[in-house]
Amino acid sequence: MTDQISFPDVVQWAVPFFIAAILAEFLWIAVKGRGGRYETRDAVTSLIMGAGNIASGFLLGFIAYGFFMWLWKITPLDLGTSIPVIILCFVLDDLRYYWVHRFGHRIRWVWASHVNHHSSQHYNLTTALRQTWTYTFTFMMVVRAPLILLGFHPAMVLFCGGLNLIYQFWIHTEAIGKMPRWFEAVMNTPSHHRAHHGRNARYLDCNYAGVFIIWDKLFGTFVPEQEDDRVDYGLVHNIGTFNPLRVAFHEWVAIWRDATQPGLTLKQRLAYCFAPPGYSHDGSRHSSEQIKAGHLSRHPEDRGTPGFEHVEQKLPNQPAEQA
Amino acid sequence: MPLEILLVLVVGGIAGITALLHLTGRSRLRVLSADTARAEWVRHFPDDTIIDVTLAHDGRAALLRTETGPGLLWSFGADTVARHLRDFDWIDHPEGIEVQFHDFATPGVTVRLDETERRHWRHLLEPA
Predict the structure, then answer these.
(1) Residue A283 in contact with residue A317, Cβ under 8 Å?
(2) How many domains does chain A have?
(3) Pair A117, A131: CB distance under 8 Å
(4) End-to-end alpha carbon distance in chain A
(5) In this structure, are residues A206 and A192 in contact, taking their beta carbons and an 8 Å threshold?
(6) Which residues contact A312 (CB under 8 A, 6 or more apart)?
(7) CB contact under 8 A, B17 and A18
(8) Are residues B61 and B119 in the same domain?
(9) Element spanning B81, H or E
(10) CA A214 to CA A212: how far, in whole Å?
């Protein structure tokens, strides 16, 4: 079993590229007068969140890496580090990313970490860097366990994960409309990912892909960006702070307050932690399904269109006890 | 990458981009009109029916009466944030009033009001 394999930390090496690309996008918007918006405090918050993400990797990364190396010690399989194995690892790790991302939107405990990435009302290359500081506490590293047990070395898995994140940087832009049709069919693109960042009812819980959009098409979560429904970026309930500490921890604080309020059953407390965002024991909040149903009650003409194909008729204020 | 080079890149990158955005006018706050305040409220709360809008003189905040109760909309960078006025406190502030929400993600906002507006907004915030 090979323990001493090293791959470069590609995300760190990509930092100069990130800065150059942000400057290029800003200049493009300034010169052309279209293709996105920049706002100082929003961008600074996003950049500080990105820096904090790297710092949290330094401080807490050993937990996931220790777990992966323990798995590597117990698995009898070793696929080596040939180019085909690295490519296979990249594709399978992208499948892993799809599911972690989907959990990130459908399980509040994981959403508490991921929410900050969606907390900007802007969509530009700095938004790509608005990353979590608390991923370790979601325990989503367990979703990578099968890859390592199958014989992919932890360093290679993390290398592929880094490449995946770098790929996702360039799709956070309004400066690019649509890519060639074949590319849009297979790859995640600015258009697909703009839809993912939408707070419009149509775009809630869609397009979880990292690199390959085929996963969304395969698992039924693909919604193409619609010309007649311009994406409105941000959260269903947008936050009113640029303070990075509040951005990083606000949903964790909200979970604590919800789950510890008096008079709840144990099931209700657990639901506040692990049910989809929007759960409430008294029906005072709306889940994404209820928001979509509410939209259809106001706009029945949208029934059956992308993003509304599978919406059941559900009263918006119905308690989400089934969660 | 050596840590010291990474630090220089990150700190220098953030400082440089911040300066560039500020010096090119990207720090200006959104200024609202009664119509844009209405449109923004509906963007935040599509279910609501607005009764009327009271705009602060500087155009950076608006108090809205809706069929589900009053709400506050305010400029947030180039965008807006809106909250129904349900769980909140307000206190006088030298420049107007300070509205405090009991929400870690939206701690509060200072609304700039002149003396005439302040009396009117007090009345709206405490109708009884």
Answers:
(1) yes
(2) 1
(3) yes
(4) 44
(5) no
(6) A289, A293
(7) no
(8) yes
(9) strand B79-84
(10) 5
Q: Are residues B24 and B38 in the same domain?
A: no
Number of other CB atoms surrounding residue B87 within 10 Å: 10
CA-nearest of A245, A173, A47, A25 to B13 is A47
Q: Which residues does chain A have within 8 Å of residue B18's beta carbon, measured at their own beta carbons?
A: 40, 43-44, 47
ipTM of the prediction greater than 0.90, yes or no: yes
> Nearest-CA residue of chain B relative to A251?
B105
CA gap B83, A76 in Å, rounded: 56
pLDDT along chain A (323 residues), means of 10: 76 94 97 95 98 94 95 97 97 98 98 98 98 97 98 97 97 98 98 98 98 98 97 98 98 98 98 98 95 96 94 57 37
B2: Cβ contacts below 8 Å, ≥ 6 apart = none
Residue A277 included in any domain: no
pLDDT of residue A323: 33
Residue at A173 is within a domain: yes
Q: How far are the Cα atoms of A85, A134, A242, A252, B11 from residue A256, in angstroms, in the given order?
A: 43, 15, 21, 6, 33
Q: Using an 8 Å Cβ cutoff, are A173 and A127 in contact?
A: no
Identify whether A159 is part of a domain: yes
Write out the residue range of the structural domain in which residue A113 sits: 10-178
> Taking CB atoms and an 8 Å cutoff, what residues of chain B touch A296?
none
Residues of chain B with pLDDT under 50: none
**Interface membership of B20 toward A (CB under 8 Å):** yes
Interface test with B, best of A119, A238, A295 (most B CBs within 10 A): A238
Closest by Cα among A22, A15, A161 to B6: A15
State the burial class of residue B31 (Cβ atoms within 10 Å of its Cβ: 0-12, 13-18, 19+): exposed
pTM exceeding the 0.80 threshold for the entire prediction: yes
Return the pLDDT at A9. Answer: 87
Token reading at B51 = 């009764």
Residues on A contacting B at a C-beta cutoff of 8 Å: 9, 12-13, 15-16, 18-19, 22-23, 26, 30, 37-44, 47-48, 51, 54, 121-122, 126, 201, 232, 234, 237-242, 246, 249-251, 253-254, 294-295, 298, 316
Instruction: Please indicate, yes or no, whether residues B66 and B14 belong to a single structural domain of this protein.
Output: no
Owning domain of residue B10: 1-28
